[in-house]
Amino acid sequence: MTRPTIHDVARVAGVSLSTVDRVLNDREGVREKTRSRVLEAIGNLGFERNLAAANLSRKRRYRLCFILPEGENSFMRALEADLAEEAAAVLRDFTVIETRKVPAFDAGALADLLRGLDPEAVDGVAMVATDATVVRIAVRELRARGIAVVTLVSDLPGPEKQGFVGIDNVQAGRTAGSLLGRFCRGRSGRIAMVSGSMLVRDHAERRLGFEQVLRTEFPDQTPLAPIEGRDDKNRVREQLSAQLAEYPDIIGVYSMGAGNRGAAEALADLPPGRDVAVVVHELTPYSREALLDGTFDAVLHQNSRREVQGAIALLRGLLDDQTPPPAVEPIRVEIYMRDNLP
Amino acid sequence: MTRPTIHDVARVAGVSLSTVDRVLNDREGVREKTRSRVLEAIGNLGFERNLAAANLSRKRRYRLCFILPEGENSFMRALEADLAEEAAAVLRDFTVIETRKVPAFDAGALADLLRGLDPEAVDGVAMVATDATVVRIAVRELRARGIAVVTLVSDLPGPEKQGFVGIDNVQAGRTAGSLLGRFCRGRSGRIAMVSGSMLVRDHAERRLGFEQVLRTEFPDQTPLAPIEGRDDKNRVREQLSAQLAEYPDIIGVYSMGAGNRGAAEALADLPPGRDVAVVVHELTPYSREALLDGTFDAVLHQNSRREVQGAIALLRGLLDDQTPPPAVEPIRVEIYMRDNLP
DNA sequence: GGGAATTTGATAGACGTCTATCACAATCTG
DNA sequence: CAGATTGTGATAGACGTCTATCAAATTCCC
User: Quick one: residue A189, left, alpha or beta (phi over 0 = left, psi -120 to 50 = alpha)?
Assistant: First the structure.
């Protein structure tokens, strides 16, 4: 009924409280034989340390640092806002979150920031990674200094980081292909693609997955080369309008991230009779509106709040030294249509 | 930097620890003037009680009771499994979960169970509600005895319960209509519907939303009267096969819950050339397989694990007397297709 | 076997809050 | 103004764990 305490462990193992404590907290000066006796007692009793009491006693605090790219990207700004709210909420659990921003796509700046982090002031880091060798090396150094590191939204492949919280972008692209293909079922024609500059890696993966599905499942629908929007609304609008005019047989549009507003405007300019199915990424006020007025048919989304919550939970688990680290439920590729808008 | 404690509050308010404690824990014997002085100090300092320390001191435990319908319904059994896992996980936070089962759709049995709950042994209840007056009355009595009550998956309309964790089923039906309509775009014909018996209320709401969307947005697609499957696989198979044979212009099928297996079999029997779009509810091993082999086009789902987590979090918040109670993020209607399967 | 080194035990106080008790002060009653 | 009543303060110990210190016991080495 009541949980065993270290007192029970000491009694069962036939040792003193001090010794139990030494074993629990990996202090030295315990003979191997004694240690195993204590561990055995812990196992038999099913003892689990009371984290609340332990943290209370040692005045533990979790000092986390979140690193995001700066810039206009509306998904990142939404993520930043969620982060601020979550930071306020977890304060009561003695978790202090500091947010840092670095120029987007600048691996050097990110690596510099990481190198400058003081293990005396930071226990764990969550970052939207730029995938580059300098970054990987900087992460390795961080870990060597005893700081926990996870990636967020955009992964850093390799063994350096201790976890990733975000969606599978190839899967996201495949899902987009699957949806758009079905929306265009029975018709044949071309598909326009708009890529932004949100994260080069993300968009490349999305394109990959998208074209995979189109090629194998919907061979009557032919993807055009992606338009490079670079977050510039007018550029997207012009280029997409031009493509739509040049190829009257465009029956679908896939927008992989930034640039949704430009795409919506280009589509609004089309003559009323023309029927184009549209799938885009990231639910924002703009894409939401376009979904409601019928310009977009579906929006793929990643829940940034859950990503933030997941990163916090994962870091805390790592810092609590839970073995194995707590499995954070994977972030899903969410599909929104007009009628399941949140 | 460090959070204020009750000692700081006492000092600032110019009173003793005892008085602060009396105010914090709503004990009587404090003059109104003194009380407001303490409250003012709390406000000025931004004091928040350290829940971990408080719970440690008073050996607080959260005793929760989850009430689920018994029977073969695979969604409910999945939910039960998730509940068992979560129960093990939250044990370390001093939360003890007891699971009770009642006959499905039996309002009297549910009300009896509620009436029998002892406030000495249970602090909070989460239940899959059957919507009936006896139940509402029983809930009111529970609340009067000081037990927190929330509904799970299936709501009990009205002010008695303190929260609901689950999806909006009208919205789910609308989403299904929206998807199936688009999948059948450009074709005209009939839509078959399969309702199970999972929860009468849920299915009625789903049908409502579904037909709404079909009527207003896809008038060329005409819904047939729903088949009542009652969890009986063979019955679903036979009736759906018969309908498919009788109406060669059926171009879509919407299965609202139980009965997916029977529907899949009926569809597998169709001649190869016939193209029917299929949308069903609840992701299970069977619906997953049907999605993978192309029998189903989309599956709508509610994440039962999150529902369980949400109910636990909500109940704990209510019991901690947080004001306002913590806003549990709403459960989303999730859409799965072959390529975004989790 | 004696001294040094290592391992273990005992004890005390801390973390922030709760509960209980008792004494003392302030207010009310008549 | 005495006595009853109510409000307040002081103190002690508890919750389960951690940290630190010092003494005692055990082991090791020559």
Answer: left
Instruction: Give chain C positions with protein CB within 7 A.
Output: 6-12, 14-21
A140 min Cα distance to partner chain B (Å): 30
Contact B297 A182 (CB under 8 A): yes
Determine whether the interchain pair B337/A178 forms a contact, defined as Cβ–Cβ distance below 8 Å: yes
Q: What are the E-state strand segments in chain A?
A: 62-69, 95-102, 124-127, 148-152, 164-165, 189-195, 221-223, 227-228, 250-255, 277-281, 298-301, 334-336
Query: Which residues lie closer than 8 Å to B115 by C-beta, 6 or more apart?
Result: B138, B141
What sign results for the dihedral spanned by CA atoms A156, A162, A167, A168? positive
Residue at minimum CA to C1' distance from nucleotide C8: A19
What pLDDT does residue A272 have?
82
Fold match flag (A61-166+304-331 vs A169-301) = yes
With an 8 Å Cβ cutoff, is A252 touching chain B? Answer: no
Task: Please compute the mean of the pLDDT values over residues A281-288 and round it to a whole number.
Answer: 91
Using CA atoms, how far apart are residues B290 and B264, in angstroms rounded to an integer?
Answer: 7
Task: Please report residues of B whose CB lies closer than 8 A to that of A48.
Answer: 92
The dihedral built from the CA positions of residue A294, B337, B191 and B276, taken in this order, carries a sign that is positive
* Angstroms from B236 CA to nearest CA on chain A: 26
Q: What is the pLDDT of residue B261?
A: 86
Answer yes or no: do A335 and B340 touch at CB < 8 A: yes
3-state helix, strand, coil in chain A (%, to 5): 45, 15, 35
Residue nearest to nucleotide C16 (CA to C1'): B53
Of A53, A186, A335, the CB nearest to B56: A53
With CB atoms and an 8 Å threshold, state whether B329 touches A186: no
Q: How many CB pairs under 8 A join A and B?
A: 84
DSSP B338: G
Q: Dump pLDDT digits (tens) for A241-279.
A: 999 999 999 999 999 877 788 899 999 888 888 889 999
CATH of A6-49, one of 1.10.3720.10, 3.30.420.10, 1.10.260.40, 1.10.10.10: 1.10.260.40
Q: Tokens 């007018």: give the residue.
A: A234
If you average pLDDT over every residue of chain B, what do you get? 90
B58 nearest nt, CA–C1': C18
Give CATH superfamily name and number for B61-164+304-331: Response regulator (3.40.50.2300)
pLDDT in tens, B191-220: 999 986 545 577 888 999 999 999 999 999
**Which residues are A300's β-sheet partners?**
A281, A335
- How is domain A61-166+304-331 classified at the CATH fold level? Rossmann fold (3.40.50)
Residue A204's pLDDT is 83
Interval A121-147 mean pLDDT: 93
User: Is B19's CB less than 7 Å from nucleic acid strand D?
Assistant: yes
For strand C, is any atom closer than 7 Å to the CB of A18?
Answer: yes
Distance CA B251, CA B182 (A): 12
Q: What is the mean pLDDT of residues A177-199?
A: 85
Query: Using one digit for the tens of pLDDT, what is the confidence trace for B212-268?
Result: 999 999 999 999 999 987 767 888 899 999 999 999 999 999 998 777 888 999 998
> Using CB atoms, which residue from A55, A56, A332 is nearest to B334?
A332
Which stretches within A247-302 are classed as H helix?
260-268, 285-292
CATH architecture of A169-301: 3-Layer(aba) Sandwich (3.40)
Work out the angle at residue A104's Cα, subtended by the Cα atoms of residues A306 and A257, and round it to the nearest 5 degrees: 60
The full set of domain ranges for chain B reads 6-49, 61-164+304-331, 169-301
Sign of torsion over alpha carbons A11, A17, A19, A22: positive
